[in-house]
Amino acid sequence: MTDRKGFLQIYNTLSGKKEKFEPLHENFVGMYVCGPTLYSEPHMGNMRTFINFDLIYRYLLHLNYKVKYVRNITDAGHITNSAGDEVDSIGKAARMEQIQPLEIVYKYNLNFIELQRIYNLLMPSIEPTATAHIQEQIEIIEQIISNGYAYLINGSVYFDTKKYMQDFDYGILSGRKVDELENDTRILNAQEEKRFFADFALWKKAGQDDMQIWRSPWGNGNPGWHIECTAMSTKYLGKHFDIHGGGMDLKFPHHEDEIAQSCSSLGCNPAKYWMHANMLNVNGQKMSKSLGNFFLPKEIIAGETALFKKAYSADVIRFFMMQAHYRSTLDFTEDALNAAEKGYERLMESLSLLENVSCNDSSSLEIKKLVDSFYYAMNDDFNAPILIANLFEAVKQINLLTEGKITCTAEDKEELKNQLGGFIFNVLGLKGNTTNSDGKLNPVMDLVLDLRQEARSKKDWATSDKIRDGLAAAGIEVKDGNNETTWR
Ligand code: AMP
Ligand code: ZN
């Protein structure tokens, strides 16, 4: 295979432009992506970000890079919510469900693993947790204090933003300058112990309600939100690595503060390329738990959202998401989903048509041009929508081959099959149609639906939901009518 590595361009949020991708070590990529806070089921918006980074991971692998992909799990700490308050979301969920914080995390981690299987995400190389890296977080905080960029007050440690700004550029990533922030952010109120409104907690003294508490040189407490990513990315990828990613909403303050922590403790910006995936919106508004405008990844494949009349397979949803560039916002609408479903069917159908194309001694198929166009799209900052448009150019050619209007050699046919398979399944991460053309699935489905009926009659909803969700994930839609259950 031609080496296509040298042509990849990545949009770097740090410079605000597309740059040639030149990893720090030849053929190796270190990538850190901020993972989920496991206090509840991730919504479809969260999944979009993880699916986008899965696409990026898959394409880097496709280019034959050896990738170390680190995605953390936030299972401790106080997260800043959209109102700017610091909330211990895991502790809050644990109190509500009357279980231990790590039981909450375990429960939702199992759920997250299942979602990744359903939506065909590759597992990262490592998924470190914040609670397993408290010591590393403490060590970085100690380094920041000893370098003079943090202060201790009442058993909590805060980052000294004013001091940092004398030596470094705070706002280098997000472009948000503290002067501007001062105007549009709430003024520090009397109860707040930090010295300056832009300072942020590196370590918080234990509060009365805290369920997760650790010992530290500053007394009992728990880490601030941003420090875990600095500790874990440094531990697994070193102080300077290739790619740091996350959702656009993490650019500020989370990633800006990660940069400040790294510069003030280790002396450098942690990542060469900063990548941000854009938001999934509902009617133009960011999907979020706090706005209540969210739906869950399992609800949409089970046809249980209020927004859509029917269920869509996980493959169709993934395909739909790939039709928007990762840096563009995406709105879920019924019309767009239905169009994606049709397009998906057409793409899969053309793969079977290609199987039956008969070959010739000469070829009028422009195979090189087609394959180049697939790489060209993805090398342009992972442009999946353009890739899909180019895949449909191949669909047109397959139709012409089927109609006998153009010809191809066996060699070209094999190459087209391999390239389409590589981009559709390995890069876009689609699983392919469930076909039942030979009827072999019928007895299996009879058995599965009998088991589901049995579970339902015993009111064992957990089992019946598991069967339904599993079938939906495999692209099989089950409909319960008055007298019978049908599937397709
Ligand atoms: P959280 O579990 O809240 O830390 O979020 C996990 C990831 O989901 C982060 O990278 C967020 O940026 C991302 N995220 C949150 N809401 C959305 C949304 N509506 N669309 C896309 N990504 C989102
Ligand atoms: Zn992070």
Brief descriptors of the model:
488 residues, alpha/beta, Rossmann fold, Isoleucyl-tRNA Synthetase, Domain 1, 3 domains, 4-stranded antiparallel beta sheet, 44% helix, 14% strand, globular
- Ligand roster: adenosine monophosphate, zinc ion
Strand content: 5-15%
Q: In what order do the strands lie side by side in the largest sheet? A: 4-3-11-12
| Total domains | 3
Unreliable sequence segments: none
Structural summary, described in words:
Helices cover 44% and strands 14% of the residues. It has 3 domains: 24-277, 3-Layer(aba) Sandwich (Rossmann fold); 298-427, Isoleucyl-tRNA Synthetase, Domain 1; 441-487, no CATH class. The protein has 488 residues and is α/β, with parallel strands linked by helices. The model has no long low-confidence stretch (mean pLDDT 91). β7 and β8 form a beta hairpin. The chain has helices at 44-62, 89-97, 101-118, 134-146, 161-167, 178-184, 227-237, 251-266, 297-301, 314-322, 334-355, 367-379, 384-402, 410-427, 441-457, 461-473; strands at residues 9-12, 17-20, 28-33, 66-71, 79-80, 86-87, 150-153, 156-159, 201-205, 221-223, 241-247, 271-277, 280-282, 285-286, 330-331, 478-480, 485-487. The protein contains 16 helices and 17 strands. Strands 4-3-11-12 form a 4-stranded parallel beta sheet, with helices on both faces. The protein has a 4-stranded antiparallel beta sheet with strand order 7-8-9-10, covered by helices on one side. Bound molecules: adenosine monophosphate (AMP) and zinc ion (ZN). Adenosine monophosphate binds at residues 34, 36-37, 45-46, 48-49, 246-247, 249-250, 279-280, 286-288.
